[in-house]
Amino acid sequence: MTNDIKFNILAWRDKEDIARQQSYETHIHKMIECWENYLKPKYIKSLRRVLELNENALNYIVKYMLIVHDSGKCTEYYQQNIMSPKRYRHEIISSYLACRLIDNVIDTKIKYLVSGAILLHHEPILMGSISYQRERGITLTDIRGRIEYPSGSKRDDSARRLHYDFKRLFKYLFERYLSDNNEILAKIISNMANLSDRIDINDLINTLGNIVAILSLAGDDAWRHKMRFQVSALQYILVVCDYYSSKDRSPKEFEFLKEIKWEWGDL
Description:
Elements lengths: L9 E4 L7 E3 H28 L3 H14 L7 H5 L9 H12 L6 H12 L3 H10 L7 H9 L17 H12 L4 H12 L7 H16 L4 H25 L5 H9 L8
Antiparallel strand pairs: 1-2
Helix pairs in contact: 1-2, 1-11, 2-5, 2-8, 4-5, 5-10, 5-11, 7-10, 8-9
């Protein structure tokens, strides 16, 4: 797939060979290709039952999730430190933006499920770094520290500033892939237009706190098990599409694809 619009935001750049890189829009194009061609035909009926959504709503939600899942890479800090972001975890910002962009647009529970799947789509990496600090789980204090002090002891506000091309890029992606419901699309774009270019750290902490509370603390045991099951269903789709899109990045990603080749047959 070729792109006729160029943006200045990268999804990744190889540490060993900086000429090897992938633009954000190409990363998303390939992820949606994976969903449309391989995962959707196989899992759409199961996902409808698990998430209790009709096919059109589910397809829309999955495409939205794929588009915004790495939006936390679209900060000044990440783009300037793309090969070594240190303590900064892009999925924290991504989860926050995913929640804010569909605020008052879709069902609240679905909003939190999508945001939760995005927050956890690099769960082994995120929780591994937390465990290294001898904490049993991620805390809101840790989240604040990773965003306010992404490089360590020095405060750096660039982790909260969105890249100047963020809104132009996402307007393009939303209009390209979410135009089958113009009413919802208009609301998402309106939310984005009202989004500050500088993320309010207190709003981020409150939003992430609400996501965690709704998905893991609210309700009884049956509710919490159901929420985790539904998050995991979305998380699986997200992780497989993510690896598919990054399959040329390194041998590690390619090996993962070989292990799950039943999703699309021979590579």
